[in-house]
Amino acid sequence: MEIKLDxxxxxxDAEFTQAAFAERxxxxxxxxxxxxxxxxxxxAQAMLGIGRWDLVERMKAxxxxxxxxxxxEIRGELEKAIRxxxxx
Length: 88
Description:
This protein is mainly alpha-helical.
């Protein structure tokens, strides 16, 4: 898929290039597809050409909870429920 944006050329310069901006927009689009559950994390990792921990950092930066953390939260809640049930 190709998306074209109509932006003024004068917003770009040597410090903020069109190429860098395009790459950042692509990254954000891929991360948004992960948030929308249209891509799996491993697919996003492959598309971005980055390691797992780089992906985790980027996901966290845009407010997406990585799978490992979601599972850890669920596990913690489940363990807490089990302990509470055993006490009663």
